[in-house]
Amino acid sequence: MEEPPVREEEEEEEERARPEVGPEGALSKSPAQLTTEDVYDISYVMGRELMALGSSPQVTQLQFKIVRVLEMLEALVTEGSLEAEELRLERDSLRKELQALRTGDPPADAAQVSLGPDKMVVDLTDPNRPRFTLQELRDVLQERNRLKAQLLVAQEELQCYKNGLIPPREDPGGRREKGALVPRTGPARVNKEEKTVIKKLFFFRSGKQT
Amino acid sequence: MAKKTYDLLFKLLLIGDSGVGKTCVLFRFSDDAFNTTFISTIGIDFKIKTVELQGKKIKLQIWDTAGQERFHTITTSYYRGAMGIMLVYDITNGKSFENISKWLRNIDEHANEDVERMLLGNKCDMDDKRVVPKGKGEQIAREHGIRFFETSAKANINIEKAFLTLAEDILRKTPVKEPNSENVDISSGGGGTGWRSKCC
């Protein structure tokens, strides 16, 4: 068997390491390379420029459409990058398999691989494989036991109140259910209630400029 | 804030092979209940039980360790703070009895020098499956100068007695002066009755 070239990796690393060119740089990127951060950069740039056009009704109309388009772009880019990550993982595992085939190790008989003493084989596809360190376990257990101790103290104290050993204090001002049931006013307006990152970035500084 | 609801705090530790019933022994003592399903303890857990001895409210903080080898580095770090250690084996499991010397070595290595020790042969309700004669337990306890009980968490035999005896032994060694107490107890010596075990 002849050796296929294994070179693509390096190009990829170079591309990722390209220096930053400011928010405007995102606009000159190839669509395939676009990240969600780039979309946010674009939102910021466009928002700023549109804001400079003033606040006539036509501009406002346009703003909402542009925000919507940018949100669509954000969704597509996010989806794309997740797919790319999955493909990358698959490629890596295939590459490893290929490597094993080339070096002549029969992968099916992994149990025979001589690892030397104090080594063990872990099946990476096993959802129950060991994957936390001793220190992590130690920390979790300490945290659990600390919380348990606090709970016991609280329960003990509660029992004291129940038995009337400690007189209950006056409740400072009855609790009022406020805000929870107030309905939102009208459709999404340009105010503090922006929901998406895009909107935040798009309308960044709008308060100061208009 | 709640007032302090006890006079003294004793920290106890349960050790021994996996499956001998450490958690069950503790559960019987703390909640007076028993559960047959075997769930391996993960690392370390604890329970609290307040008892009254010689007119003192003593809060027992009892640490329950995992017997499995893979948790040893975690569990041995809890030996240091213990004032009393209960070493448990299973009378129906010869291996758990053979390992007692290993556990005693662990105590020597990791616990305080003056820690109060006690040996428990658990599951004494299962006499038909017994492989460790009671005499062997008594003998090894005598050799190491420690107390011994045969217990059953399931049948509730000697569980409370074992814990109270261990607590009494610790209390006897505890200096009577209490820095925060209002009345200083001068009843030194405190004639403790060395209880002998009787089970099954």
Give the secondary structure arrangement, pairings included.
The complex is a heterodimer of chains A (210) and B (200).
Chain A: H1 8-16, H2 36-52, H3 57-102, H4 134-162, H5 197-202, H6 206-209
Helix pairs in contact in A: 2-3
Chain B: E1 8-15, H1 22-31, E2 44-53, E3 56-65, H2 72-76, E4 84-90, H3 94-98, H4 100-110, E5 116-122, H5 134-143, E6 147-150, H6 159-173
Parallel strand pairs in B: 1-3, 1-4, 4-5, 5-6
Antiparallel strand pairs in B: 2-3
What this model shows, in words?
The relative contact order of chain A is 0.11. The termini of chain A are far apart. Chain A has six helices and no strands. Chain A is 53% helix and 0% strand. In chain B, helix 5 links the parallel strand 5 and strand 6. Chain B starts with 7 loop residues before the first strand and ends in a 27-residue tail after the last helix. The chains are: A mainly alpha (210), B alpha/beta (200). The interface between A and B is medium-sized, with 14 and 12 residues.
Distance between the termini of chain A: 69 Å
Major β-sheet strand ordering of chain B: 2-3-1-4-5-6
Q: What is the chain-wise order of helices and strands of chain A?
A: HHHHHH
User: What does the average pLDDT of chain A come to?
Assistant: 75
Structural class of chain A: mainly alpha
What percent of residues of chain A adopt helix (DSSP H or I)?
40-55%
Helix content of chain B: 25-40%
Oligomer: heterodimer
- Order of secondary-structure elements of chain B: EHEEHEHHEHEH
Low-confidence stretches of chain A: 6-18, 176-190
Number of strands of chain A: 0
How many strand segments of chain B?
6
Number of helices of chain A: 6
First-to-last CA distance of chain B: 47 Å
